[in-house]
Sequence to fold (486 residues):
Amino acid sequence: MKLKRILSTIMASAAILASQATVVTYPAGEGVETLDDFTVSVRQNGGEWQPVAVYPVKVDEVRGTRHCVETASMAYFDFDGTVEVAVKYNKGAVDSARVRPLSYDIVPAIDGTTLTFTLSSPRNLSVEVNGDIFHNLHLFANPLDAHRPSAKEIKRAGKKGSKLVYFGPGVHQLPGDTMRVESGQTVYIDGGARVYGELIAEGVRDVRFYGRGEVHPKGRGFGISVRRSKNIEANGPVVTQLPVGGSDSVNVTNVKSISYYGWGDGMNVFASNNVRYDSVFCRNSDDCSTVYATRKGFVGGCKNITMENSTLWADVAHPIMIGLHGSATEIGPDAPADTIENIVYRNIDILDHQERQIDYQGCFGISCGDNNIVRDLVFENIRVEDFRQGQLINIRIFFNKKYCAAPGSCVKNVLFKDITYNGNNSELSIIAGYDPTRRVENITFDNLVINGVRISDDMPGKPKWYKTGDMARIFIGEHTDNIVFK
Fold:
């Protein structure tokens, strides 16, 4: 396949120099649309300010029951050491500003319409002016790119003997809106590039997706998808969605997923094992991170799924959703149960959750259906900011006739450790089984803190006739055993 390349001599020289720098910026390639709501620049050690290209990115605002598309901003650069960032707001006066996640404790200085702050480590951020979260700046301050190909490798890309597929700065339309990647290939999407279409790793192994640019269809759909493959890595690019199905040994690092259309899940896992996410950013128009069993033709359970050091923002539905789909729907109600086990979420910031449908609420959603067995889960060191609408926790075995052919079998052995929520919008959380044979068991909350109050079975002020969940607005229903607050 002949690939469109936009790689001028100036760009090539800049890339070589940038690889030796401690701040790397990526000018927008020819034909790539930019946006001027914000002007962004960076510098180090009081040196010269370097401009950072700002791009439009579509996000989803649900008004009532309708999905409404809004255009926010996005910018990215790479650095090591310490960098000073200046963000100029070009749409009017700045009455207030904040940089999230709030746990990073980044308080910008405000001078007129310009915000400045300093970073000493890579961060995926949201810069919000006057409380506007739908026209904000998504600012991705990346580590230096260790996977960038050399100028010689770029020149040989696409030729006989080269395993590199290179998309240079500029606009690229994939023929037929898809490209299937072969085993052993590396796909590099350079900063300033925008690739329209879907990159597919299916039935392959040892494939790498690297870079800083964007990959997404012109409408709804996946940017990168991994299907029935092994030993796959994605590091750095911006995509709409990145699902993993029927695969093993997949590592996703510093990938950003932003979607705006209905059912725009960010990073799904279907019937896969040994999948690890590190330092990802998900802002999605449906669930951000899911772990499901048999689904979409991928058959089996899930084992050893980890997400850590990441940021989740659900404009609708769940930041985290586990257990809904399994073999009962795709094979039959009497199909053997799928097992979802050894799932870890660690060091996560949840920025938002907005969902009116009670069946689909929950920053932590464990909705066990389709005869699934869900067990051995850990949620550790997770900070939940004040979301707009929904529940903090929803753990249920249930029968959702819209998506399931049977209720789930069990949920057991779940640890919530060092979880904090600060906010006023959480509705009543729910923990409930289905019947005497389909139960929720062994749920432990160790250091759950809600608005500064530590919730425990022996907490001060709790009457003896109260359930501890009453103190946290968590309804603990029937068919549950050993729900412990430490």
